[in-house]
Amino acid sequence: MSIKTLFLDAGGVLVHPNWVRVSEALREAGVDVSADRLAAAEPRAMHVLDEATIVGATDDRKRGWMYFNLILEQVGVVRSTETDRALDALHDYHTEQNLWEHVEPDVVPALASFRERGLRLVVVSNANGRLRHLFERLDLARWFDALLDSHDWGVEKPDPRLFQLALAESGADASSTVHVGDLYYVDVAGARRAGLAHAVLYDPASLYEEADCPRIMRLADLTGWLDAIAGPA
Length: 233
Prior knowledge:
49% of the residues lie in helices and 11% in strands. The chain is α/β, with parallel strands linked by helices. It folds into 2 domains: 5-14 and 103-230, HAD superfamily/HAD-like (Rossmann fold); 19-97.
């Protein structure tokens, strides 16, 4: 099978919250928790959120801030007026700049390797209208043929329409497109409903062993998976 296009989720795959900034905001509000502990709790909190009942009953904006309270719960911090004050300040920053501003060291080399293979790269993300601003600020926009921010299109994953819009914007074909995301009920289910050739779950903490889809733990692992499905040259 010839794969020509990669759809990539942004938050949780290409970019992550700036946990140093989050830790500092909490400390200013009188809550002491390290950036490392917050980062370690992120996958578990996302796994809790990734339920069909939650996804179906909320939108990305509501899930986003529920997620921070779940992370605090995971590290043993009780929600309080202090934590709410810190999260309010972070929300203000996110509205202007987008808090998902940390890029893991392996992301750019992986994107370069995908480009070397001749793949078309497209971001398909539930975001807040500041995705392009963020990717330009982080010097990531140059790697992509199209960036789809759900806020700009008025529809978000798992609705298949966002994937279909991405196909139209990038000139891609569903039969030769793979989507990679970190939420089963948002990314995998949505991509399948849109008729994409494959949906791959990004699972760095190996929390989805029961999932009925391919899983990768690092973005670079996608290269080996692409070689495997392509078969012998």
